[in-house]
């Protein structure tokens, strides 16, 4: 009897263990899709990172990421300023289709389908952290421009967001010497505040703003891991948007530079440290190889900082608010260890509208054919397959009250653009003249005319979308 009971116990135990193993395997198999992190800097110029040739700025983590994945030489923002570009990232559509023509102009429309909404349906936990700038984040806020449209209305489960810019050091206080928007006489900050899941935040808001953001992103990722859920984290830093301030530790890294550049580079290095901290966390949790990281800036360097030589568009002309390459071409990289070949330097002309279709293709999710996208997938680049963009793309922004309506249209080597207010349409060979020194409008009038007609067709498509063709209110 004892032996019979003993063997019976062994059999029952064995089947129990097999069941536990099966359950464990089933649980582990739930998270088969890659985690995705979209990181964006704010007003970071093409020449403001080490991986694009800046010898003074300290960005070891970004530089290593660029060497370990894909570095884009020709990555474009959908607009030379913040809100429109951010709209393009989340939807794969030109901001002109959405009525987001400039900063604080309108807000993300409820009918626009975002990456977060798509991924949520695919079983992802979704989190947003940092600068939203696609609508107000406080329901009772009433201002002259914009409207209430927070990230949790657009597919995000966890949010820690500001409406727009804050100081990059001590984001609840007016920086010393700052007298522009947001400044308060009592030393408090009169601009945007942090709101977490709909509630104003009062704790852990001192010191480096990039650290404050990552302090909220990491627990979200940890929670997703504990629930064995793939995650989609959108991390949009405020750095190095004005007021750009660095803490003492980071100022000390640049003792030989003028004070203004110490703050600018110091804030960038602080952001780089936090990106390194994030990567170290992914590695510690053994999910680094199953996590895709995309990094870019929302536009070129800010006007006043670029004009003073503090910020840099690298070899390109112009800056934020202009359609020159310096306003549109931004630093960018993609990293997916053991999936993307190391050390790819791509001349492919990608842009911020391409993120949406790229992610859909990676996940083998079909796009809605009724809704036109402006972006195309650059997944072939990640696979080392193609290096030439076959579909032209357009960029631009409007502030009609100030008589500003600027456009650029890029088709391979050639670009037409109205660079700045009061300019005529110009034509450049950006492959051989990336600094845009030689306007070819008079030399190649037929090409100019052809590209202008193509741009008009795109603009008409944009107009049809924003006036109701794509969805019903």
Silhouette: globular
Main sheet: which strands, in order across?
A: 6-5-4-3-7-1-8-9-2-10
| CATH architecture grouping of the largest domain | 3-Layer(aba) Sandwich
CATH superfamily of the largest domain: Alkaline Phosphatase, subunit A
- Strand percentage, roughly? 15-25%
Terminal residue distance: 76 Å
CATH class of the largest domain: Alpha Beta
**H-E order:** HEHEHHHEEEEHEHHEHHEEHHEEEEH
Give the class from helix and strand content and strand pairing: alpha/beta
Q: How many helical elements? A: 13
Q: What is the CATH topology assignment of the largest domain?
A: Alkaline Phosphatase, subunit A
How much is the average pLDDT?
A: 93
How much helical structure, as a percent, in the residues? 25-40%
Quantity of strands, as a count: 14
Radius of gyration: 24 Å
Q: Unreliable runs, pLDDT <50, ≥5 residues?
A: 1-29
Q: Biggest β-sheet, characterized?
A: 10 strands, mixed
| Domain tally | 2
Domain Sulfatase N-terminal: 34-364
Protein name: Arylsulfatase A-like enzyme
Signal peptide: 1-24
GO molecular function, one term: arylsulfatase activity
Question: Which terms summarize this structure?
Answer:
473 residues, alpha/beta, Alkaline Phosphatase, subunit A, Arylsulfatase, C-terminal domain, 10-stranded mixed β-sheet, 4-stranded antiparallel β-sheet, 13 helices, disordered N terminus, Sulfatase_CS, Alkaline_phosphatase_core_sf, calcium, metal ion binding, arylsulfatase activity
